[in-house]
Amino acid sequence: MSGVWVFKNGVIRLVENPYQSGGVTHGRRNVLVYLPTGEVISSYSSLEQILMSLGWERYFSGDSDLIQYHKRSSIDLISLPRDFSKFNSVYMYDIVIKNPNTFHVRDSH
Q1: Whole-angstrom Cα distance, residue 104 to residue 97?
Q2: InterPro entries under this entry (predicted)?
Q3: What separation in angstroms does the CA of 66 have from each of 13, 33, 49?
Q4: Cα angle: 62, vertex 85, 101; to 5 degrees
Q5: Are 5 and 12 in contact (CB under 8 A)?
Q6: Cα separation of 80 and 60, whole Å?
Q7: What is the 3-state composition of the chain as percent helix, strand, coil, each rounded to the nearest 5?
Q8: Cα gap 58→19, rounded to integer Å
Q9: N vs C: which end of the chain shows fewer Cβ within 10 Å?
Q10: pLDDT for position 21
Q11: What single-letter DSSP state applies at residue 41?
Q12: Greatest CA span in the chain, whole angstroms?
């Protein structure tokens, strides 16, 4: 069971899937921005080029639903859904945390 708890007129209820999937927070779509160039990441191919330039390598775990990257210099692993349309703010913030001062998540508006 997933969704958002809404309190209205003294009643609390669970609203399932209040927004469409994929990086939507409070009705807005988030985007991942590569700070050195200001590029908005719009595909996995552009993201992969940047990650590889930062020392990340593809990691093949056998899970066909995920694309994964690891860095030899750390224990970090970035796991992303193979379908870019499912790339949402949770995955974006994971990339931001594992690459400080390199990426930023912002509203697309």
Answers
A1: 9
A2: FPF1 (IPR039274)
A3: 33, 21, 17
A4: 85
A5: yes
A6: 12
A7: 20, 40, 40
A8: 32
A9: N
A10: 47
A11: P
A12: 53
Give the position of tokens 């970035």. 78
pLDDT in tens, 51-82: 999 999 999 877 788 999 999 989 999 999 99
DSSP 4: E
One pLDDT digit (tens) per residue for the chain, 109 residues? 556 677 777 777 776 655 544 444 455 689 999 999 999 999 999 999 999 999 999 998 777 889 999 999 899 999 999 999 999 999 999 999 999 999 999 988 6
70's CB contacts (< 8 A; 6+ apart) are 56, 57, 59, 76, 77, 78
Cβ 30 vs Cβ 89: under 8 Å: yes
Question: Which residue type sits at 98?
Answer: K
* C-alpha to C-alpha distance for 28 and 19, rounded to whole angstroms: 9
